Amino acid sequence: MSTVQEVARREAIAQYRVVGVPPEPDLEGLVQLAARVCGVSTAVINIIDDRLQHQIAAVGVQASVCSREDSMCAVVFREPGHIVVSDAREDDRFAQNPFVTGEIAAVRFYASSPLITPEGIPIGTLCVFDEQPGELSPEDSRALALLAHQVVDVLELRRITRELGQSNEQLENFASQVSHDLRNPLTAIAGFIELAADSPELANAPQAARALARAESAAARMDSMIADLLAYARLGGLQPRRDEVGLDDVVRAVLDDLDSALAAAGATVSVDAAVEVIGDETLLRVLIQNLVANAVKFSSAAGVQPQVDVRAHGLTGGWRITVDDNGPGVPAEQRERVFELMERGTAQEVPGLGIGLSTCRRIVEAHGGRIGIDASPAGGASVWIVLPDSVD
């Protein structure tokens, strides 16, 4: 590639902010689905810069970094396209590659589809491989290409969200784009999960069956979240349902959705939230998920093993919920400012969109409640929420 193309690619990669950070749960779900659909042991999302190949999500191997010279994907990356290789030992492009010869691995079957940005810039691949020779059916090959497109969609939606301004008009425009760009891929992914779940092979693979059941449940919850949040953005405000909600069940569902991210960070989460609150279950799940994910992310960035404590108890006329962590905390002078849209305080080096706490505040206020931050007994941040049992 020319120097101009390399510069454009480096800039595109930098905008996505996925290199050198814990794997995103959405990306991990896509590699798991790719491996299942293609019937192989391993799938990886690679981001390839001018020197290195970064595995930003993987199943079947531990995500790692290797030199671009050693990468199999970098070989085909010079002319990006959809590639299927039955036996890499018999392909001149790969026969001497260390991932094939046994120096690093013993790859035989290999297939990849490029990750191309909307501007036409190749930034990496979604690849699947196995230590046994193999083939892909035309249907599975198309599925791999579709999933590669979904990887870029996820990256793009994160980038677009991060770049949103504060105006309601921008939020409304974003809602329209999300309706098309997120709901449609989610429908496709749910379809692949359903196809995989119907496979007779699952009768002898209980672990895979459980993983697919969890993926199907997560897709359904995501669809519900998207529906409510799109309505929220379009209306410029929330009108939450007023249902009895078991908060402990909400927290457990959140921990299930965040399972991969929690495991990758070595995080432990303790829960004491056996209360029934009045509110909108979907929005409360978004609220808790944002707070737990934030706690883990910032604690990890501070170099500590994350310990998160979620608690709730009744008050006269309502409930108090706290999410404590052992991370760096939030300086007192920033504890109000971090709730503003696109505001991240002094933590600019920590990947994120800068809208999580703003979303949390809007959800809490829509329920007639209040949210704030104190110092945690564990030394980090303690986000507290007070929800009333009725909205005036």
Automatic annotation (TrEMBL):
Main location group: membrane
Entry-linked SMART domains: GAF, HATPase_c, HisKA
Record-linked InterPro entries: BphY/WalK/GraS-like (IPR050351), GAF (IPR003018), GAF-like_dom_sf (IPR029016), HATPase_C_sf (IPR036890), HATPase_dom (IPR003594), His_kinase_dom (IPR005467), HisK_dim/P_dom (IPR003661), HisK_dim/P_sf (IPR036097)
Keyword Kinase in annotation: yes
Cited SUPFAM superfamilies: ATPase domain of HSP90 chaperone/DNA topoisomerase II/histidine kinase, GAF domain-like, Homodimeric domain of signal transducing histidine kinase
UniProt xrefs under Pfam families: GAF_2, HATPase_c, HisKA
Top-level lineage group: Bacteria
GO MF annotation terms: phosphorelay response regulator activity; phosphorelay sensor kinase activity; protein kinase activator activity
Subcellular location(s) per record: Cell membrane
GO biological process, one term: osmosensory signaling via phosphorelay pathway
Reactions listed under catalytic activity: ATP + protein L-histidine = ADP + protein N-phospho-L-histidine
Keywords attached to this entry: Kinase, Phosphoprotein, Transferase, Two-component regulatory system
Annotated EC: 2.7.13.3
Tagged with keyword Signal: no
Domain Histidine kinase: 177-391
Name this protein carries in UniProt: Sensor-like histidine kinase SenX3
